[in-house]
Amino acid sequence: MAIEGRVHRDDADGDFHPAGKSVTTQTETPMGVVLDKDMLDRLCRAAGADDVAFVELDRPRLAGDLPGILRVLPWTKSFMVFVRRLSRHAIRSPARSLSSAEFTAGAHDVKEIIHKVVRDLEDSGLRAVGISGLFPFESSRTDGSPFIAPLKILAEEAGLGVMGKNRMVLHPRFGADIYLGAIALDGTIAAPDQPLSASPCINCNLCAVTCPTGAIAKDGHFDFSSCMIHNYREKVGGFVEWIHTITDSRNRSDYRRRVSDAETLSWWQSLGYDANTHCDYCVAVCPAGDEAASFLANRQRHFQDIVRPFREKAELVYAVPESDAEDHAARVFPHKTVRRIGSGRRPTSVVAMMRMLPLLFQRGQAKGVAARYHFRFRGKETVETTVVIGDQRILVESGLIGRADLEIQADSEAWLGFVNKERKLPWEMLRGRIRLRGSPHLLKDFGRCFPA
Ligand code: B12
């Protein structure tokens, strides 16, 4: 049965969207409304998207994120996922102001596309909400996931690209120079799109050799923490850390010893305009997409013109003391200056803390660590987790599995206080709120793997 559109902006007001009218044609089945894919596609492209595809919720790779998505948007039946192309040449400029301006313009475009499309869909009686995957985030969620939906996985499932070594979804034409967006739809799609069969990543490793923190490794490992701390110096945890630097500074000269005037000015820009990132080099140097053939024909030129300026750039690299990033930057880029900062990380629940462990794990610091840890939290949160560290890898499992080398029993709030450097371990142990069974050296080893 076709449902005729209910409300539409007036043709005569000059603001009528040509594709908008057709979106109102929907077919209703016992499973709900089946949406017209071509019409939605046209609507999204007319709003500025450069590529569009569709996925439903039954994909196994979405299973982990589904409860979170449905908690917020319980009526979601499918996603329209889209790509907004960014200007390659601006991103390739070593001048941060130019590159950041392009990323922030792209972010505005994604939000604008969402705004236009969702309004049109709403006008035609369809429930839809956009997820930009950009700021604002859910800053108060305590389950360890501040974003609503994993756009990279949605995009891969929709066949818009495949994640490369730089962890970016690489579009077959536009390569890494894209932002993603998604629109949750209260309707199903007759023929959802399927993942691509081949990756546009050509394994050139340029992202790995250019990454100032070593977060991207040639073997495919991605160090979330090192990337985040440097790149997001002026966002999220970096902001928290800056505020702490201000509050902890004794006076103006003490603050200036910790933060240069140039950095303070950069903060002013981020707060007054759009928050800057400190690095997008892994996007800039990536030759994937329609440029791959010319890159393969002349790798040397690409290296000289695009890669070299990033590698040679004298700049600050933000890193936590005794982290893999600090070691990497000092060893590989001695002409760059490592600025030691705190991570700004302050977990508010042990559940979130445990979930984040694999993302924060520093495999370089974990050399020589081999132990099985049992964490038994009681009090406000009841959580039992096993963490195994060995061969510079980490495994986190729910429940108490195997025989522990170190068993940690703790009141969840006391543990968070200790981790957040607000409570002292000996004092909490004296009060019986934290108990260790096994060598305390193993706790020290554990801490070494997660410098903060
Ligand atoms: C968190 C985040 C970051 C973090 C972490 C980066 C990362 N690789 O995850 C930081 C701050 C460092 C970051 C930086 C950047 N980001 Co960012 N970021 C996100 C965000 C919000 C979530 C990404 C995510 O799922 N991260 C989890 C990590 C671990 O994912 P992953 O390893 O890459 O992928 C695996 C995991 O997702 C894993 N997985 C899923 N759940 C879990 C849970 C656990 C516990 C574990 C271990 C694994 C896991 O399965 C995946 C496949 O193996 C998305 C927006 C969104 N809502 O999706 C944008 C997004 C990924 N960022 C984007 C961009 C462009 C950037 C930057 C270039 C900065 C910028 N200018 O915006 C840099 C590039 C850094 C890089 N090389 O990754 C774009 C990427 C576009 C594209 N082409 O793919 C996105 C999609 C935003 C958007 N709207 O377009 N980002």
From TrEMBL:
Regions that span the bilayer: none
InterPro entries recorded: 4Fe4S_Fe-S-bd (IPR017896), 4Fe4S_Fe_S_CS (IPR017900), Helical_ferredxn (IPR009051), SCP2_sterol-bd_dom_sf (IPR036527)
Single GO MF descriptor: metal ion binding
Record region (Disordered): 1-28
SUPFAM superfamilies: alpha-helical ferredoxin, SCP-like
Domain (4Fe-4S ferredoxin-type): residue spans on this chain: 192-221
Origin: domain of life: Bacteria
Regions of compositional bias (Basic and acidic residues) in chain numbering: 1-18
Keywords on record: Iron, Iron-sulfur, Metal-binding
PANTHER family xrefs: IRON-SULFUR CLUSTER-BINDING PROTEIN, IRON-SULFUR CLUSTER-BINDING PROTEIN-RELATED
Protein name: Epoxyqueuosine reductase QueG (Queuosine biosynthesis)
